[in-house]
Amino acid sequence: MEKNAAKYLTGKCLVSMPNLDDERFERALIYICSHNQEGAMGFVVNKKIKEFSFADLAEQLPISFSRQIAPIDLYRGGPLDKVRGFVLHSTDYLKGDSIATGGGIAISSSIDILTDIAAGNGPAENLIALGYASWAPNQLEQEIINNSWLVVPSSPELIFKTKDEEKWQKAMDCLGIDPVRLSGFCGRA
């Protein structure tokens, strides 16, 4: 573990503040899979892609499947590299490029996990994101100081089992914050 790991947010979630002026992140919950001195990377976990499904994705990739694929949602992971796929998943599946990020959550980006999901042999819980969000060194820290994000603990329950339309509010609730009472202004006392 890194000496300064406690100051980093790997394995935590960001909750967008109501005053965040970027529609891509409006009421967004972002899982941070990597954060260190070189920057941060994460995935929006509460915004489904409505016009494209996992079955559509499987047909475009070299995934062979012998049975009908159960409906699986895809998510808008972020504004960068929107054609690149990532799978957030439970740690019961750790193969190949899987990286455990803490708290029972791992991430993979290989075609193998998608093939296993299609075959019904994948992780017990998963969330497939196309694209990602990233921050340059110290950028995320500055955005937090500027009142764009709140940091909350993550959990498999929040990421995988909470309804998408409830994730943002549930994250706010775990902080004991009523979003109606939040101010869009930041400052220091």
Compute the average pLDDT.
Answer: 88
Rg for CA atoms = 17 Å
- DSSP, total strands: 9
What would you call the shape? globular
User: Sheet with the most strands?
Assistant: 9 strands, mixed
List unreliable stretches of 5+ residues.
none
If you had to describe this structure to a student in words, what would you say it looks like?
The protein has 189 residues and is of the alpha+beta class. 21% of the residues lie in helices and 30% in strands. The protein contains five helices and nine strands. The protein has helices at 54-60, 111-119, 139-145, 156-161, 164-174; strands at residues 12-16, 29-36, 39-44, 74-76, 80-90, 99-102, 105-108, 126-135, 149-153. Strands 1, 2, 3, 4, 5, 6, 7, 8 and 9 form a nine-stranded mixed beta sheet that branches. Strand 2 and strand 3 (39-44) form a beta hairpin. It is globular. It starts with 11 loop residues before the first strand and ends in a 15-residue tail after the last helix. The model has no long low-confidence stretch (mean pLDDT 88).
